[in-house]
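Long-time lurker, finally posting.

We've been working with Acetyl-CoA C-acetyltransferase (Caldiarchaeum subterraneum) and I want a structural starting point before designing mutants. I don't trust myself to interpret raw outputs, so I'm hoping someone here can both generate the structure tokens and explain anything notable. Sequence follows.
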Amino acid sequence: MTEVYVAGVGEIPCKPSYTQDFREMLFKAFKNCLEDSESEVSEIDAVVASGLDFFEGISITDSYTPDQVGGRLKFNTLVSNDSLNAFIHAYMLIKTGWFKNVLVTAYAKSSNILNYGEILLNTWDPHLIRPLLIHHFSIAALDAQAFLSRRNGEPRDLSIVAAKNIRNALRNSAAAYGADIGIEKIESEEFVSEPLRRSHVARLCDYASVVLLSSDNRSAKAVVKGVGFAHGSHSSDLSERVFGKFAWVRPAVSKALPGSLRRVVEFVEVSEPFASTELMVLDELGVYDGDVLKGVRGGDFMFDGALPVNPSGGCIGMGYPLNAAGLQRVVQAVKLLRMGRWSGCLVASVDGEVVDGGSVVVLSAG
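Top reply, 14 upvotes:
Generated this for you. Predicted structure of Acetyl-CoA C-acetyltransferase:
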């Protein structure tokens, strides 16, 4: 069976805003990836892009990306989903045996979106649900409160997660929002929608990243050990939603991480638009032996803890790049593996801020 390796990664740092066009941003990330993989443009067989016309305001978004990443006259496809799902699509293309080197691309130009909250509200039913919502934060807050109630948690647990990630981001040169912040400082902030406070919500950023997957292990930076994705809810009808629980995680992780691989996971990278997202994913992953909330309070998920979670800073510390969040997490995971401190990890990413669906990838050091 064909093995799949991460041959190289490239990114540009997260920033609240870039003056460059998204094409220039993507080109810079692509150049960094080529240098990292020591590859030539001619060696790329296919390009898998992650993009959402909904955020871009233009149709067929990926038609604007191939020229910047060496994809002209080559196989191109768009995954209108989180970029970790695009990563899995590229993985499957290599598994067919028809492709040797496949590029995965993702970017976010959030600074161009002037009415982000209103745009997200347009994803809900215009007659039954949208009139009830002031902001999509209210759905995330219901999820957070339901999770805390079900697991006997406290709102302070969310502040512990947020403070951890913001401080972790200080170590990451690609992060936009790292700071030396304490739990009490976050606890004194205003609510955006109770129990979510301002720092519990990841701030948007501009960002671009490119990952090269290959069947050739000569330049391997990491090995893809398993992948999985699933949907927990197939409807936007809130009456069918199970609040406070991600039903997608267990089916996805069961595909990506069979029991024999559990020992490989030494840290976890999760895309977390909200602090509660990280806890809800962790609660279902099954990679931590113990109660997740007790682990949070005991420091087990800190950078130096028993199972570091988002040692890169996560989306709360780095910035939330919309659908590029999944690939952002992959790039950070590969960078961390190359430090030599850890030998394996799990990457998980939700399909959207308030979506019950997502993807899981397991990586080991190359």
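Before you design anything, note these points.
The two ends are 18 Å apart (CA to CA).
Residues 5-109+205-214 form a domain with the Peroxisomal Thiolase; Chain A, domain 1 fold (CATH 3.40.47.10).
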